[in-house]
Specification:
InterPro entries: PIN-like_dom_sf (IPR029060), PIN_dom (IPR002716), PINc/VapC_TA (IPR052106). The chain is of the alpha/beta class. The chain contains 8 helices and 5 strands; from the N terminus they run βααβααβααβαβα. α7 links the parallel β4 and β5.
């Protein structure tokens, strides 16, 4: 199984606002570093992390850059960017989800359930996609 990592997993590691989620995310990322799981993400996720850290958490730009570098350089993580724009628009129109989530869902492998989304975002469940929380993957 290949796991797509959503922004909230990385944010739990960077913000540490929920100790259990932080521990689950930390264990999951450590397993990726040890090649126990194949993991991917995309530039939309990175952009969402930057935006959230800067605008919501008011983290200084230098710290945000440091955090994103850590993600980009994470051993075992691949960054992919392939979307089906028309499918994304259709999902966005039909379901009550964020446009970024519809783009993620439109990616090859995710839309045909060959890739599992690792996220705390239950909106993906509306699309009947494979989704697990980090603790469910490592347990």
């Amino acid at each position: 199984m290949i796991y797509f990592i959503d922004s909230n997993v990385f944010l739990r590691l960077l913000i540490i606002d929920n100790k259990k989620q932080y521990n689950d995310c930390f264990s999951f990322i450590e397993a990726i570093k040890q090649n126990k799981f194949d993991a991917i993400t995309n530039t939309l996720v990175l952009a969402e992390i930057v935006w959230t850290l800067l605008s919501f958490y008011k983290i200084p730009k230098e710290k945000v850059i440091e955090g994103i570098k850590g993600i980009v350089q994470l051993r075992g993580l691949k960054i992919i960017d392939s979307y089906n724009q028309l499918l994304a628009l259709k999902l966005y129109e039909i379901y009550s989800i964020k446009y970024i989530d519809s783009l993620i869902a439109s990616s090859e492998g995710i839309s045909n359930k060959k890739i599992c989304i690792v996220s705390y975002d239950t909106d993906f469940d509306k699309l009947r996609l494979l989704r697990k929380e980090p603790g469910q993957v490592t347990s």
